[in-house]
Design a protein that fits this description.
Blueprint: H1 9-26, H2 35-51, H3 67-70, E1 95-100, E2 103-104, E3 117-121, H4 122-125, H5 139-143, H6 151-159, E4 164-168, E5 176-181, E6 188-197, E7 202-208, E8 214-223, E9 228-235, E10 242-251, E11 256-264, E12 268-277, E13 283-293, E14 297-306, E15 312-322, E16 326-335, E17 342-352, E18 358-367, E19 372-381, H7 385-393, H8 398-414, H9 420-436
Parallel strand pairs: 1-5, 4-6, 5-7, 6-8, 7-9, 8-10, 9-11, 10-12, 11-13, 12-14, 13-15, 14-16, 15-17, 16-18, 17-19
Antiparallel strand pairs: 1-2, 3-4
């Protein structure tokens, strides 16, 4: 019998990862689905079997331990009582779609029929023989596995229990709001959303609420030529929440994509965004503000590909960290050879309120075109003592002065929100966080 060649350390680790993933997949049962959705789920299972689930030794997971996101059952997370607070976006006229512990709540939701919008639950669309969403579900997620694997997005495609499919057929002023509520300390949420913005159409998507003890969402967005998609998300104040989100977006000519996320507390949050600028003159902005205190780990991982000429992109991320909180930023701009006249901007900054907090950053540029304007910067530091002295010399108490400087530090990220009424809602949430942490 011929002896099998001994595997090197890297090959052995990969073999062990694939074997462990296969064992995990064999124990899973796919949700009930119609034919086209079942095929998409099975294709995702096959992809995951080849990729393997992540571990800390993977390049893009070295700053964030995925172990708590992979356990068979989520750890319990205390319910947060927010009855004394106004609901985020509560003052905004919006179409509400409510999920409680990951289950659609029809009684709390608005009528899903709206002029200029086609909205259907994933569970309902998946039961149909034909639906426009079948050409998109899992498609952008699958494309996003190169050049960097995103296995937890694949897992979501396979196992998502519900979500919404939204098609904007014209310009729609009234935002669609996805509201995640929870009542169970061990609730797990796995939702998959598909958004299609027709050429020349425009819509705004809001997301808010704690959602679950462990939350996983994938949102795939296709923006047609001349279309616009705006996304504003808040991730609630639950201190023990664990969350993994993926946002995949493909842009046509002269199209606009803007996404902003506000994160306050939470044990572990990782937000990934993968954007392709595939049409001339496209614009993609991805931004975020995060505030963490104590047992807080927050990771923004962004990959923007310029595959067409005369496009611009912005990545703007700000984090305020205190009492041992950890912030991570991994951002990349990839410019293909044909993407001349690219304008790419990337900035990641952290404000460390003490010596025990950390900010870990990995900014990257990969450029193959020769007529581009690209820049990136990453900094971390404390409050400027001169600015603090200036404010205190004019009569402000020290904590009030620090609060003003924190809000000023975060302002650049909030400038990425197109609608002023939505930006003001975010500012109010930020002011509340600053006041609570004086």
């Amino acid at each position: 019998m011929t002896a099998q060649p001994k595997l090197g350390p890297r090959a052995a680790r990969r073999a062990a990862k694939i074997e462990a993933t296969a064992a995990r997949l064999n124990a899973l049962e796919l949700p009930a689905s119609g034919q086209w959705l079942r095929r998409a789920r099975e294709a995702a299972v096959a992809r995951l079997g080849e990729i393997g689930l992540p571990d800390r030794r993977d390049e893009y997971w070295k700053f964030t331990d995925p172990a708590s996101l992979l356990k068979p059952e989520p750890a319990a997370a205390k319910l947060f009582d927010a009855s004394d607070e106004a609901e985020v976006f509560g003052a905004i006229d919006r179409l509400k779609i409510v999920f409680v512990d990951g289950i659609f709540d029809a009684a709390a939701s608005d009528d899903l029929s709206a002029e200029g919008l086609e909205i259907v639950r994933l569970a309902d669309a998946g039961a149909r023989d034909i639906h426009w969403g079948q050409e998109l579900y899992g498609t952008l997620e699958a494309a996003g596995q190169e050049p960097v694997a995103r296995p937890l997005a694949v897992l979501n495609t396979a196992l998502a229990t519900d979500g919404v499919m939204i098609r904007a057929t014209r310009r729609v002023e009234r935002p669609v709001a996805l509201i995640y509520r929870r009542e169970d300390t061990r609730a797990e949420l796995a939702l998959h959303h598909v958004i299609k913005v027709d050429p020349g159409a425009e819509m705004t998507l809001l997301e808010s609420g704690p959602g679950a003890a462990r939350l996983a969402t994938v949102t795939e967005v296709c923006v047609g030529d001349g279309g616009a998609f705006h996304h504003v998300r808040t991730q609630g104040r639950d201190h023990e929440r664990r969350a993994i989100t993926h946002l995949f977006a493909r842009l046509g000519e002269e199209s606009v994509f803007k996404s902003f996320t506000l994160t306050a507390n939470g044990a572990l949050t990782r937000n990934e965004a993968v954007v392709w600028l595939n049409g001339k003159g496209g614009s993609a902005h991805v931004a975020g503000a995060a505030m963490g205190d104590g047992a807080f780990h927050h990771d923004d991982t962004v990959f923007i590909t310029h595959a067409a000429p005369d496009c611009e992109s912005r990545q703007v991320f700000k984090k305020v960290l205190r009492n041992g909180a950890v912030g991570v930023f991994q951002g990349k701009i990839l410019v293909h050879r044909e993407a001349q006249l690219t304008d790419g901007y990337q900035i990641s900054q952290s404000l460390l309120m003490d010596e025990t907090s950390q900010f870990l950053a990995k900014p990257e540029l990969e450029i193959y075109a020769d007529d581009v304007k690209c820049s990136h910067g990453s900094t971390s530091g404390e409050l400027d003592p001169d600015q603090l002295f200036y404010l205190r010399a004019r009569g402000l108490p020290e904590e009030a002065a620090k609060g003003l400087l924190v809000l000023a530090f975060l302002a650049e990220a909030l400038d990425e929100i197109a609608r002023e009424d939505l930006a003001e809602e975010i500012r109010e949430s930020l002011r509340g966080w600053v006041n609570r942490h004086r």
